[in-house]
Amino acid sequence: MTSIIRATTPEAFQQIAQMANIIWREHYTSIIGNAQVDYMLGKFQSVDAIAEQVESGYEYYTIDFNDEPVGYLSIKQDEDVLFLSKIYILKPFRGKKIGQKAMQFIESRARELECTQLQLTVNKNNTNSILAYERLGFEKVETMVIDIGSGFVMDDFRMEKNLS
């Protein structure tokens, strides 16, 4: 059984940071390289970075499967848009419809917040994720190259899904 639990404590942020370290190293190293993975984990997925994001309005959630933490997600409302900042599942738990349940949760949360659209960004070379988002009704609307400091950029597509 999948459950999604709001993360509000330093302990929950630590759990998320530990999962991020595993997931990012196994998934993103081949896409963006070790140096950028290390940089992004520190800048965006450390306990302090997560706490700062929560302070600025992001909601973080752990995703549990049979009472075991197997992933996490992060969202932020901006007027009538819900931005999906992060959704990650540990590799051994992919293909068990956990991500699908998480996306249902995100859509439900968007409707609670009276949002009419979901948005996300995804690395242009993250082919499987792009295909999964397209199957869920997202469309590519923009290409983006964002300087994130220290000589690194995020080379992404922005994708949208209308909820009306």
From TrEMBL:
Residue spans crossing the bilayer: none
CDD domains found in the cross-reference section: NAT_SF
Organism listed in the record: Geojedonia litorea
Protein name: GNAT family N-acetyltransferase
Domain named N-acetyltransferase: residues: 3-164
Classification of source organism: Bacteria, Pseudomonadati, Bacteroidota, Flavobacteriia, Flavobacteriales
